[in-house]
Write a structure and sequence with these properties.
The complex is a heterodimer of chains A (about 325) and B (about 325). Chain A is an alpha/beta fold. Chain A has 13 helices and 12 strands. In chain A, the strands form 2 sheets. Chain A has an 8-stranded mixed beta sheet, sandwiched between helices. In chain A, strands 2-1-4-5 form a 4-stranded antiparallel beta sheet. In chain A, helix 4 runs parallel beside helix 7, helix 5 packs across helix 7 and helix 7 runs parallel beside helix 8. Helices cover about 80% and strands about 0% of the residues of chain B. The longest helix of chain B has about 40 residues. Classes of the chains: A alpha/beta (about 325), B mainly alpha (about 325).
């Protein structure tokens, strides 16, 4: 089966006063129809830039896709003209963002913001667009949806606004939903509700989801397959169970150790283990990275790691990793 | 909303009362004796005193104020010291040209400035933007009277496309009316156009950085909808504010423009009345201008609530 979305050797760069920043440095992954893929990594690893690159939303003044290929449903997106991209965005591929507080337009009603998407892409009259907006608000379980249509974002809570964003993103039955840290700005209890809602809607609509997050807990609960990114590169990819049972890349292992765990007995005994951080800092992306990006912080690093980029090696069962040492 | 508008209307009353008091006392305590001027250069002390009694200027100031205020309530602003005509009628005769000039100036300024500002922000730092902003600096720096004479020289004298000066009431036909207004409106409007265009650009640039614009783009909306609805509506409050300030500044611009183009409006009436110390006319005019400003402010304040649903009073 061919993948719905194929990203191949994507390079996205930003032009800054300090030089060219290689925010995404050769990332490849596939997304199958109806699949939930997690992209995980720390801040600045290029997760969000990857997402914006897929929708070609990198502002031309600041950066560009330097090379690579993004194929959606067999169609190459990197060379597509802007008008064709606009017909794709919000219709076949839609996106929700981290900040529900600022991602909705404060001076337009919720109903207008959903309806305009429907009217734009499905070519229905405004009245039908409003009706679709009402259906979508009901679908994301906003109570009293009819009245909410005429409300403005500031009249809604953070969780409700993210529900509105989801309703908007799914209003044209997209094939791909890219969710960039959709729950990071929300309270923990609301986070779980929003994730459950996204998964439930995915089951109903068959939309494939790319879930971008720094939160391994979210990844474990919601995704089927995970791509781990570090310094603009993919370092490991695996089905979610395999990743959590046998993390291979030293960076992934480090991330797992850095998850705080609730251990009441250890707390009572006063023997709570210290949280392990990964030593060192993320490399500066204005300089080309020679060898493995993680080498400077890696406990296993050898001379070869600092000079040669490790290739991806299949560890079996769809689990691939780019590391000289663990695949030796 | 209606309750808010009514409340705001009532709130203008104390402002107007303060203005009335200020106007009255300011002119009473200003130097220069109108009685002496009216009586003439070779007047005796007795004839000056007689004029003073006739005008009520001999009575206590507080009493004069009371009488004046009572008359004002009934729409009587007194009579001109020189022409003996009622001030209300004199002002009413001159309102039309000034109103026509102000509105056409605003129309010229706003109708051009907002699209220019939006395009400049959209094409920020590109050639179009630099050209537009260059002209805006030039337009803002150009005094009204300089531009007025340049326009008259080319459009009226050299090419004879438009009248040199004068005013035709709208009752005498639409084209003659418009024809006379084009040059004064442009001369007066360029400054405001420059000001409004710059504010529009700055406000739009800020809004275009916002997350919700990225959301609008991620929805694949057409560029004009993103710019004119999603961005401009958010950018509108500063723009409307500056248009309001522009209307207030317009009043002094009108005086110059009416003089250059020989338009018989309130600006000319003001200049004449001040030079002759015709107190009743000056008072009436200041009150009319103040009321106009208060009204404009009120409209601007109310428009905020329409533009931004988060603003509620």
């Amino acid at each position: 089966m061919t993948a719905l979305l194929e990203v191949r050797d994507l390079h996205t760069q930003f032009n800054t006063l300090d030089g060219v920043v290689r925010a995404v440095d050769g990332v490849s992954f596939d997304l199958a129809r109806g699949e939930t893929l997690g992209i995980v990594g720390e801040s600045g690893c290029g997760k969000s830039v990857t997402a914006l690159s897929i929708l070609r939303l990198i502002p031309a003044e600041t950066g560009q896709i330097a090379s690579g290929s993004i194929r959606f449903d067999g169609r190459e997106l990197t060379g597509l003209d802007e008008e064709a991209m606009k017909r794709l965005r919000g219709h076949h591929i839609s996106m929700i963002f981290q900040e529900p507080m600022t991602s909705l337009n404060p001076v337009l009603t919720v109903g207008t913001q959903i309806a305009e998407n429907v009217v734009r892409h499905l070519g229905v009259p405004w009245r039908a667009g409003r009706e679709r907006a009402f259906e979508m608000l009901s679908l994301v379980r906003i109570a009293d949806a009819r009245r909410r249509l005429d409300e403005y974002p500031h009249q809604l809570s953070g969780g409700m606004r993210q529900r509105v964003m989801i309703a908007m993103a799914l209003s044209c039955d997209p094939q791909v939903l890219i969710a960039d840290e959709p729950t990071t700005a929300l309270d923990v209890t609301i986070q779980a509700q929003i994730l459950d809602l996204m998964l439930e809607l995915k089951e109903k609509t068959g939309t494939a989801i790319v879930l971008i997050t720094h939160d391994l807990g979210v990844v474990a609960e919601t995704t089927e397959r995970v791509v781990v990114m570090y310094a603009g590169r993919k370092v490991e990819e695996a089905p979610v169970e395999a990743l959590f049972e046998h993390p291979l890349h030293p960076y992934t292992v480090g991330l797992m150790r850095a998850i705080p765990r609730l251990d009441v007995e250890a707390d009572i005994a006063g023997k709570r283990p210290r949280l392990q951080e990964i030593p060192g800092l993320v490399p500066i992306l204005t300089r080309p990275i020679i060898g493995c990006a993680f080498a400077a912080r890696c406990p296993l690093a050898t001379e070869r790691c600092r000079t040669e980029v490790p290739p991806f090696v299949d560890a079996g069962g769809g689990h691939t990793v780019a590391c000289w040492e663990v695949t030796r | 909303m209606t309750a808010y508008i009514v409340r705001r209307l009532f709130a203008t009353l104390p402002v107007m009362a303060v203005v009335a008091m200020f106007v009255f006392f300011l002119l009473r305590f200003a130097p220069g004796d109108p009685a002496a001027i009216i009586a003439g250069d070779d007047a005796t002390a007795e004839s000056i005193a007689a004029v003073r009694v006739k005008l009520g200027l001999d009575r206590p100031v507080v009493e004069q104020f009371g009488v004046w205020l009572w008359d004002l309530m009934r729409g009587d602003m007194g009579v001109s010291i020189f022409s003996n005509l009622p001030v209300t009628r004199l002002i009413a005769q001159r309102v039309e040209p000034t109103l026509a000039l102000s509105l056409s100036t605003l129309f010229v300024a706003v109708a051009l400035a907002i699209p220019i500002g939006v395009v400049a922000a959209w094409k920020a730092r590109k050639l179009v933007d630099r050209l537009v902003m260059g002209f805006a600096v030039l337009g803002f720096a150009m005094p009204v009277f300089v531009l007025a004479y340049v326009l008259i020289y080319f459009f009226a004298v050299q090419w004879q496309l438009l009248p040199v000066q004068g005013y035709r009431p709208v009752g005498e036909g639409f084209w003659p009316f418009v024809e006379c207004l084009i040059l004064p409106s442009v001369a007066l409007g360029v400054t405001y156009m420059a000001l409004i265009a710059r504010i529009t650009r700055a406000s739009m640039l800020e809004v275009l950085q916002q997350d919700y614009i990225r959301t609008a783009n991620a929805k694949g909306l057409a560029t004009d909808r993103v710019l004119l609805l999603h961005a401009l509506k958010n950018a509108a409050v500063p723009i409307v504010t500056v248009i309001g300030i522009g209307i207030a500044l317009l009043i002094s611009g009108v005086v110059i423009t009416e003089t250059v183009f020989n338009i018989p409006g309130l600006g000319r009436l003001t200049v004449d009345a001040v030079l002759k110390r015709d107190y009743p006319i000056v008072q009436g005019l200041i009150l009319v201008f103040a009321a106009a400003k208060v009204l404009v402010n009120l409209i601007i304040d109310i428009s905020y609530a329409f533009l931004d649903p988060r603003i509620r009073y």
